[in-house]
Amino acid sequence: MELDAGIMESAGSGATTTMQGLVASIVETDGALRSAQTKLEGKRVMLENPVREVSAGEQRRRQVKSALSNRSILSNRQMRKLGMLDVDRKEIKYDLFVPIHQLWLQYFQQTTADSTAASVLQSKLMKADLHGAIIVVIRSRCPSLIGQRGIVYRETQYTFQIVTSTNATKVLPKQHSVFGVVAQGCLLEIFGNNFLYRPSERSARKYKAHGKSLRL
């Protein structure tokens, strides 16, 4: 036991000496060394940078942004995998989706090959993925919906679900409504009845040109 105690004392003394040597290499005098030791007593030293916690909403935004960067229509399976079918509305914040809207503008610009012709824009819009687009209700059988505006964070067969600039989430029925989509410096008019399909099904359908466009 005496031998063990001696070894422990020696080890402890060695560790203390090493620590003092490290501190002494930073401070120049014994007085400064004692002052530094006093200040360090009872203090916790952060050895690594703390990992910033990523909220579920932020993580979902990154996943959706990554999916949209592939410029393809999201299928129900993909949306389910990304958690877009069971979104907690409390986590939906407008600021989180502004970068996705910017990415959507780039995606749509590439889809239309930079064309500004209204007929081309509307034709491409009918088959485009609208996740990240800014839409506004222009006409509707439900007067309270008119003027509702926001970024699409989810699209179903019968609805557009948006988040407004005030972080409110809204469910907009497609049927019997006319929407405006901001793209390429225009407000493009689309009929909700033409969108009563799943996003992945729209890309394979043929549509007649309807609606108007307004240069912004």
Automatic annotation (TrEMBL):
MF terms in GO: ribonuclease P RNA binding
Family affiliation: Belongs to the eukaryotic/archaeal RNase P protein component 1 family.
Superkingdom per UniProt: Eukaryota
Gene Ontology annotations of biological process type: rRNA processing; tRNA 5'-leader removal
Organism expressing this protein natively: Plasmodiophora brassicae (Clubroot disease agent)
Task of the protein: Component of ribonuclease P, a ribonucleoprotein complex that generates mature tRNA molecules by cleaving their 5'-ends.
Coarse class of the protein's main subcellular location: nucleus
Coiled coil (UniProt feature): none
Keyword Nucleus belongs to the record: yes
Subunit text: Component of nuclear RNase P and RNase MRP.
Keyword tRNA processing carried by entry: yes
GO CC, alphabetical: nucleolus; ribonuclease MRP complex; ribonuclease P complex
Subcellular localization, as worded in the UniProt entry: Nucleus, Nucleolus
Record's keyword terms, sorted: Nucleus, tRNA processing
Name of the molecule in the record: Ribonuclease P protein subunit p29
Record-linked Pfam families: RNase_P-MRP_p29
InterPro entries linked to this entry: RNase_P/MRP_Rpp29-subunit (IPR016848), RNase_P/MRP_Rpp29_sf (IPR036980), Rof/RNase_P-like (IPR023534), Rpp29/RNP1 (IPR002730)
Lineage: Eukaryota, Sar, Rhizaria, Endomyxa, Phytomyxea
